[in-house]
Amino acid sequence: MQRFKIKLLLRGGLFLLRVYCLLRQRKNKERLIAAMLLVPAIVLLIPSYTFELTLLQSFLFQAMLVYGILSIWWIVKHHYRLASINFTIYLLLLFKINTPMDVGSSVNQGSESLKVMQFNVHAINRTFEETIDRVIQLKPDFISFQEVGPSWAKSLENGLKEDYPHFTIMAHPMESQGIAVFSKYPLRNTERILWHGTANIAGEIMVGEDKINFLALHTLSPTSKIRWQERNIHIKEAKEHIATKGGEFLVLGDFNTVPWDNSLTSFKANTRLKDSRKKLTPTYPTWNPFLGQIPIDYIFYSEGLGCNALDAVEITSDHKAILGTFLITGR
Q1: What domains are defined for the chain?
Q2: Mapped to the 3 state alphabet, what secondary structure does the chain carry?
Q3: Tens digits of per-residue pLDDT, 213-266?
Q4: What is the pTM of this model?
């Protein structure tokens, strides 16, 4: 037994010595590091069909920057194989981030223009007057608000009804789930819809002789697997609602997911709606620096509309507002 233990220890020591000798060789060291870098890259690049993958891939932009910086680092250190592997991963991540964005969709002609804002006010935020003053200053024609609790509902109505006489507010037992829409243009056939416990407002905006369907929503934040599933069901219900309508469409709200998430790319493909983003335009959380933020607020639009500008605007919340100018092209 004693001889067996000594033999086992010697073999183990010999194995570790061989590994050490292999790692002392530059080629082998590079191969090991390359393998270590490839594993997380594969996880980031595969489709986000699970709760865990969705969470990890929310930070694809930040991961892409890390691989880009590592590429430069390995070049400086003259490790060109590692640099090429890192740069390839960087390009693949860049492609995955940019593919869902409709970069070439801007227009400069249309019969009417509509300035649209999407803003999650944050339920515990109490800067009512400052928020309302900033919204009026930005002069949107149509606004979708989320996390509208009783205090926000009262403040928004009192502060905006003179400039935005057409509005609908939908209360919810959860303060963070109340929503509201305000418009300078008449609203028609508005509906307050409860899908899977979440509030939604649908209707039509009358811009002159033109009618634009709208759907304002706020999906659940996917902080657990159950909430992730409910969020995906909500997005499917929105997709089914849009399929029953004809004409032009604006869908706006806090979707609580990133543009490259499988549930959102599927939503766009099935509804044939376009994302108003031309670049990343992150919106959450504002307390993080720009490089630590992710895009989760959206304004989607149909083919008969065009978006010629979209900006993220910091107001008072943990979300930035997004403000887009849309033209009714009639295509």
Answers
A1: 2-98 (no CATH), 112-328 (3.60.10.10)
A2: CHHHHHHHHHHHHHHHHHHHHHHHCHHHHHHHHHHHHHHHHHHHHCCCCCHHHHHHHCCHHHHHHHHHHHHHHHHHCCCHHHHHHHHHHHHHHHHHHHCCCCCCCCCCCCCEEEEEEEEECCCCCCCHHHHHHHHHHHCCCEEEEECCCHHHHHHHHHHHCCCCCEEEEECCCCHHHCEEEEECCCEEEEEEEEECCEEEEEEEEEECCEEEEEEEEECCCCCCHHHHHHHHHHHHHHHHHHHCCCCEEEEEEECCCCCCCHHHHHHHHHHCCEECCCCCCCCECCCCCHHHCECCEEEEECCCEEEEEEEEECCCCCCCEEEEEEEECCC
A3: 999 999 999 989 999 999 999 999 999 999 998 889 999 999 999 999 999 999
A4: 0.88
